[in-house]
Amino acid sequence: MATPLPLRVFEAEARVYRRTWRGSVVSGFLNPILYLAAMGVGLGSLVDQNLPGGVEGVSYLTFLAPGLLVATAMQTGAGEGAWKVMAGIKWQKTYQAKLATPIGVPSLVAGHMLWSGARVLMVSVIFAVIMSAFRVAPLLQSLLAVGPALLVGLAMVAATTAFTARLDEPTGLPLFFRFVVIPMFLFSGAFFPITQLPGWLQPIALATPMFHGVELSRAIVVGAEPAVTWWVSVMYLSAWIAIGTALAVSPFRKRLTP
User: Fold this and answer.
1) Model pLDDT for residues 40-62, shown as the tens digit of each residue
2) Upper half-sphere CA count for residue 110 (Cβ side, 13 Å)
3) CA angle (14 as vertex; 12, 19 as ends), nearest 5
4) How is 50-99 classified by DSSP, letter by letter?
5) What is the pLDDT at residue 42?
6) pLDDT for res 2
7) Is the separation of the CB atoms in 227 and 87 below 8 Å?
8) Contact 72, 31 (CB under 8 A)
9) Residue 135, phi-psi category: left (phi > 0), alpha (psi -120 to 50), beta (remainder)
């Protein structure tokens, strides 16, 4: 039976990654260790001293770790949908080469999403293992928290890919990271409850995909109820993935086909 065309795209990306995986795996382990040690243990000890009851009833490390897990998945997804897509369309033109085969634009976009999801999953699983090593939660709970992180990462891949494919020049990407990715990283509940934000900012934080992923992952790790019903958050994140992927197809076709 013939291999589905999106899996051919996935296979091509995997073959390239086989030559470069060592560097990303090292950073994949090092980044969560540094984040959790510096902010969860270092800063967290100061927070716990001043808040004997903890943050939302748990230590700051326990509060922070699932938020950082989702934030890492979010940033990885944004990266997969930004510079890599720009390189494929404009700089290296690898997408044009792939379209010279029987692969069509929808299969190319689907394969890109599959591979990007695999990259997000790799990074998230590594982070979950480090979380368990820091005794934030048992390994099984930490791995279960990867599910919402994966949804957030895919949502960012889809949205960022749709945005990047519409750019004629890469100058829009630094602005995207400065005004979308970084604020989402800081103000979507990873570091502190969004109730600490000014009232007018709270609905904006609530609308971000990262907030829903943080709430779901934190609920799994802590064993508490998320602020938004879990199935609503899952449907919301799934809508981001579906709509973003659909919006990416048209600009891909416009930019890559005669």
Assistant:
1) 888 788 888 888 787 888 899 99
2) 10
3) 110
4) H-TT-BTTB-HHHHHHHHHHHHHHHHHHHHHHTHHHHIIIIIS-HHHHHH
5) 84
6) 52
7) no
8) yes
9) left
pLDDT at residue 176, rounded to an integer:
96
How far apart CA 152 and CA 258 sit, in angstroms, is 34
Amino acid occupying residue 244? G
Cα–Cα dist 63/102, whole Å: 48
| Residue 203 exposed, middle or buried by CB count within 10 Å (0-12, 13-18, 19+) | exposed
Q: Where are the domains of the chain?
A: 5-256
Q: What is the dihedral of CA 210, 213, 218, 223, to 10 degrees?
A: 160
CA distance 80 to 103: 20
Residue 169 host element (H or E): none
Concatenating the DSSP letter of every residue in 172-241 gives HHHHHIIIIIHHHHHHSSSSS-GGGS-TTTHHHHHHSHHHHHHHHHHHHHHT---SS-HHHHHHHHHHHH
Of 15-19, 65-69, 70-74, 123-127, which gets the smallest average pLDDT?
15-19
Neighbour-count burial for 39-60, b at 16+ CB within 10 Å, e otherwise = bbeeebeebbeeeeeebeebbb
- Report the distance separating Cα 197 and Cα 51, nearest Å: 18
Q: How far apart are CA 201 and CA 229, in angstroms?
A: 21
Expressed in angstroms, the distance from the first to the final Cα of the chain is: 31
pLDDT in tens, 81-139: 999 999 999 998 999 999 998 999 999 999 999 999 999 999 999 999 999 999 999 99
